[in-house]
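ESCALATION

Customer reports they have been waiting on this structure for their group meeting. Please prioritize. Original submission:
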Amino acid sequence: MKLKNTLLLLPFVFGMACSTSNSATAGFELKGKLSNPHNENLVLEQMSTDGIKKIDSVTLDESGSFKLTSAIKEIGFYRLRISERNFATFIFSPDEKVTITGDAGNLGNTYTVSGSPDSKLFWDVNQASMKNYMKLDSIQKAFQLFMSVVKDSNRVDSMSKALQGPYEGMVAAHNKYLIHFVESNTTSFAALAAVQQLQGDEFIPTYVKLDEGLFKKYPTSPYIKSFHESVAQQKQKGEAEKKVAIGQPAPEITMNTPEGKPLSLSSLKGKVVLVDFWASWCGPCRKENPNVVRAYNKYKSKGFDIFSVSLDKEATNWKAAIAKDGLSWTNHVCDFQFWQSPVVKLYNFNGIPTNVLIDRNGIIIAKSLRGEDLENKLAEIFK
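Update from on-call: job pushed to the front of the queue and completed.
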């Protein structure tokens, strides 16, 4: 068993950006003093939507001091770079007077910042994420070391179970911190770094709260508008998932059979039905077909049936695959629209094979059953 990994938007990997407007303001000032200087050249760069753009540069003096007075056009993400592997990321706004300290040899992990509220919040969330990452990484490495030494599978499983609890507890605690951070800073660009560590499909309400705050404050920002559109898509996806969630009525499907006659899913009401999405051109689907055939032959006499929905583009290939794979049930339909078929959005999937199992009343009771999982579920139903 593998322990989960977490995605961290740390200062040395952060790559988000905010586009700028056309009007420049010359009031921005960035100064500081770095320890261990060796006349390094500091480059201030804007992380824009179309790439990284150089804004200004300065060379550290013998004491490590520097000062930049640059035209920052709009709030956004910027980085101060010494080399491609030695930089720190900030959130700067026009007219800010920012002071930075740190080690010139390891700027990203040693810097402190004042005079820029969003940059300070960004630093806070990255520090918390780094600490959490180190804890999780230590558990992961300990487990990997244990597996490399101990070859007894029972002991490995036992250790995995012992570590899984603390590991998941740390993940949950960090997620709780991130949610609180985002919902307490819904008008800060720094919250974008936090929210993107949360899986969108699980934490949509937090995304929505941040979107409402940022879009209200920065309605013309191209980056915020992009985030706004992304959240809207997430909300739509969430609504689509609700419609095909377990416990919901299966949406109606009506398409033509190989004989060209319309057939509706609802015509099978009264049976336990596997709505199976596949295609003749889909290798994994063809490999899964023997499992589906086996399940059908085993339970068809007990009230089990299959409604096969193909994403094929050509009738000849579709019919040939039905015959070759021995898909002997009669409920085969296709509209020959490939991925543009309405069923893709209707049932909210982006890969095949996939399926939903519905009960005799047309209610979804299981999803994505493959191999033994399908037979086990049917055995449970028809016991």
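Sent to customer with the following note: Residues 117-149 form the longest helix (33 residues).
Escalation resolved.
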